[in-house]
Amino acid sequence: xxxxxxxxxxxxxxxxxxxxxxxxxxxxxxxxxxxxxxxxxxxxxxxxxxxxxxxxxxxxxxxxxxxxxxxxxxxxxxxxxxxxxxxxxxxxxxxxxxxxxxxxxxxxxxxxxxxxxxxxxxxxxxxxxxxxxxxxxxxxxxxxxxxxxxxxxxxxxxxxxxxxxxxxxxxxxxxxxxxxxxxxxxxxxxxxxxxxxxxxxxxxxxxxxxxxxxxxxxxxxxxxxxxxxxxxxxxxxxxxxxxxxxxxxxx
Length: 251
Prior knowledge:
The chain is an alpha+beta fold. The protein has three domains: 1-73; 74-165; 182-248, no CATH class. Helices cover 69% and strands 11% of the residues. The protein has a four-stranded antiparallel beta sheet, sandwiched between helices. The radius of gyration is 44 Å and the shape is rod-shaped.
């Protein structure tokens, strides 16, 4: 008497890799193999691998049990009855004729094998639909996580920029406060730089004047600053390079 064997292995913690699916395919060319399952049945042959080792190497648990029982035992009457009712009338008639003509168990074994194959195909189709849904859910979840990471990253960048801005302002305020204690000295440095008639010294003079302007704004002394700057312009009216730099700096 033949032995009917049914295997349904499931990977729960992670999907199978492409190489692992290829290896499983080499073990069985008829099995229904997806990224998370291996399903097959045997009526006359056997699984060409050790089931326990397959579970240990590729899967997390055996969700649907490996069943091994005599083929002659057949499916449950209720299952077989429901399946036969769903067959086309032509197939039902053929089954009756075969049952009446064949006196041995071959017709019965053929019927059970056909029933098992149909159930296996339905199971495989259901698994395929389930896998497609799982893939869609995984992609949607991945997109959601990517959007959340992008949002958090943008918030972090904004917060970092605000922090750097606040630090820069604090540093600038401290520098201007120290500069305010040395204003007469700074105005003398401006005059000394301009007097050299060197482009680099013009730039240094304008940089100091910008600092003095910002200090005047902070202290509400812009009128006093503008009066002092106008005197500088008058003294150095012939130095066009210096005046151009003042205009460019909006001074």
